[in-house]
Design a protein that fits this description.
Elements (H helix, E strand, L loop, with lengths): L3 H8 L2 E2 L5 H6 L11 H4 L1 H14 L3 E3 L7 H5 L7 H13 L7 E6 L14 H17 L4 E7 L2 H14 L4 E5 L2 E3 L2 E3 L6 H11 L3 E5 L4 H14 L4 E5 L5 E3 L2 E3 L4 H5 L2 H7 L3 E4 L5 H12 L9
Parallel strand pairs: 1-12, 2-3, 3-4, 4-5, 5-8, 8-9, 9-12
Antiparallel strand pairs: 6-7, 10-11
Length: 300
């Protein structure tokens, strides 16, 4: 029997939320702060952002836990808060989740490297991700979204750890750059290998986020659809960030960004959201475009 989320993906395009970091910076997050600590220090701000995305029409909103693994928090001396940060993050979002909405537990890279580049073994990183995913599930998320992964081997440990922690859906996205030879991660992982390996590890939805703007993401979605039959998620940046008057800005407007929504669905994406620079207004403009179209394929 399909879950409610699987049924939704089968029926129509599904809309994810957009950027969290960009929204927090606009509200005063400094470069020296861990955004995850705001789950404890400024929960009202996090709740406000989640509410804005749900009200904009997002089907799925994700917790403010991108850097919430023990290893990532340790870089700022906050590893003792790993439990509080992740469970509180889920509670904050649940407080504003409508009955028809879904809550994803967000997991990003640890910022550390596997051997031989770094000192960690795959089993050690898998345990780190298992811990975070378990805490998010304890906080009552309904799926795990692993994103912005640039090392396929680390991404695989994240999927395996999350798969151990829950039977809920696990999404996994890599971040690719466009090169003269095609799309690759900074660690040299190609698209077909990445998606196939993530699916083998237990990811039920695969895709890409960050780095690319909408035009490049459209090209990438076409390539991803040639590679896999399972649902695809695509979350592009609002263009390449630019520094103006001491502030980071993004060149692609909400209107231009949303104009690609139907094209992404036609190219084979099943779930569309926003990444850096794409705030609630971007999601609001995409909502009627994404939700009125049924993808031209049945998810496996």
């Amino acid at each position: 029997m399909k879950s409610a989320l699987q049924e939704l993906i089968f029926k129509r395009g599904v809309l994810f939320d957009g950027a969290m970091g960009t929204e927090l910076i606009a509200r005063g997050l400094s470069s020296g702060e861990a955004s995850e600590e705001w789950n404890l220090k400024r929960p009202e701000i996090i709740r406000e952002i989640h509410r804005a995305y749900f009200e904009a029409g997002a089907d799925i909103v994700q917790t403010n836990t991108f850097g919430g693994s023990r290893l990532k928090l340790a870089a700022r001396g906050l590893d003792n808060l790993v439990r509080e940060v992740n469970i509180q993050a889920a509670k904050i979002a649940l407080a504003v989740k409508p009955p028809e909405g879904f809550l994803a537990g967000n997991i990003g890279p640890t910022g550390r490297f596997l051997q031989p580049v770094g000192r960690f073994t795959p089993s050690e990183l898998e345990e780190v991700f298992y811990e975070q995913a378990s805490l998010l599930v304890e906080g009552s998320v309904e799926l795990i979204n692993i994103e912005t992964m640039y090392d396929l081997e680390e991404a695989k440990t994240a999927v395996r750890g999350s798969r151990r922690a829950t039977e809920f859906p696990v999404f996994a996205s890599m971040t690719f750059s466009k090169t003269k030879k095609g799309f690759y991660t900074i660690m040299g992982n190609d698209v077909p290998t990445s998606l196939k390996e993530l699916e083998k590890c237990g990811a039920e939805v695969v895709g890409a986020n960050c780095t690319l703007g909408m035009p490049e993401m459209l090209e990438l979605v076409k390539l991803m659809r040639q590679t896999t039959d399972i649902p695809i998620i695509a979350q592009a940046n609002a263009g390449t960030p630019q520094l103006k008057d001491g502030k980071m800005t993004y060149p692609i407007s909400a209107e231009e960004y949303a104009s690609y929504a139907e094209k992404l669905l036609e190219a084979g994406a099943d779930i569309i959201g926003g990444c850096c620079g794409a705030g609630p207004e971007y999601i609001r403009l995409m909502a009627p475009l994404v939700k009125r179209q049924k993808p031209g394929r049945e998810p496996s």
